[in-house]
Write a structure and sequence with these properties.
The protein is an alpha/beta fold. The protein has a domain at 72-226 and 240-248: 3-Layer(aba) Sandwich (Rossmann fold), CATH 3.40.50.150. It is 29% helix and 16% strand. Helix 5 (120-132) links the parallel strand 2 and strand 3.
């Protein structure tokens, strides 16, 4: 009889290797989801938007989540509130293939929308899908400094920021009259609490924590094996993040 393996002696799995393995699995799962259900977002504020089945320039394994509308579903309420505050300019830094840039352009057809990213390939894909969705998104390469965010015309502004640790550079004085939805990357260095304190002088700050999606949103997935809806609608992140929604106490005016 074989000896029982002592689990304490097994090597620790490498987190990066595990995540890459998951991304390889997800490429097949997501391809099947798009083949079976089409390419329009099912649920949430961006319902009906056409999304690409894969971004070869910025692969996070979550194209299926974007299709089902479970991607960063924790932000749905904040997105609705941001739209209600009627920004004239929307700037999405770290836009990838344009999930938020195109989504807000559909919800705010009168707004000037910008998508910024460090990947030209992602910007090209964003341009293609903006055209498919019949919206205008202005695109710029960059978003590696605060100065690059100071684009667009006058009026109340909304920033949707996923800038991989660069959020630590944000100064509330420069964004005093703008709303911001900021993804916080504390794994680069702990910064979220200090960032919230910094913005609390000029904004009402909300902490938005990650949580599991509601599977009742997707009753059509119940006929599939349990693993399928879990893989399809739960985000794949190597490290958990959270968000700060910062609502300006004084909104920007039409004249700047």
């Amino acid at each position: 009889m074989d000896a029982i393996t002592n689990l304490d002696t097994l090597p620790e799995p490498d987190a990066a290797e595990v995540h890459q393995c998951l991304l390889r699995v997800m490429r097949g799962v997501n391809a099947q989801a798009f083949a079976m259900f089409g390419n329009r977002v099912f649920h949430g504020p961006f319902s009906g938007m056409v999304v690409p089945p894969y971004n070869p320039h910025w692969n996070d394994g979550n194209s299926g989540c974007k299709l089902f509308g479970s991607y960063e579903h924790e932000l749905h309420e904040a997105i609705g509130y941001a739209v209600w505050r009627n920004p004239q300019v929307v700037i999405n830094a770290g836009c990838a293939e344009g999930y938020y840039a195109i989504g807000f352009a559909r919800l705010l057809p009168e707004a000037e929308v910008w998508g910024l990213d460090i990947s030209q390939g992602s910007l090209d894909l964003c341009a293609e899908y903006a055209k498919i969705n019949e919206v205008k998104v202005n695109l710029a390469l960059g978003a590696q400094s605060v100065q690059e965010l100071m684009i667009g015309g006058p009026g109340h502004r909304l920033y949707v920021l996923d800038i991989e640790g660069g959020e630590d550079q944000l100064d509330p004085i420069e964004f005093e009259n703008s709303d911001l939805i900021i993804e916080v990357h504390d794994f680069f260095k702990p910064m979220g609490a200090a960032l919230a304190d910094r913005f609390s002088t000029t904004h009402r700050v909300e902490l938005i924590r990650p949580r599991m999606p509601n599977f009742e949103w997707y009753p059509f997935l119940k006929r599939f094996p349990t693993l399928m809806p879990v893989l399809a609608v739960v985000e794949k992140r190597p490290v958990q993040c959270y968000w700060l929604a910062c609502w300006a106490n004084r909104k920007g005016s039409e004249n700047g």
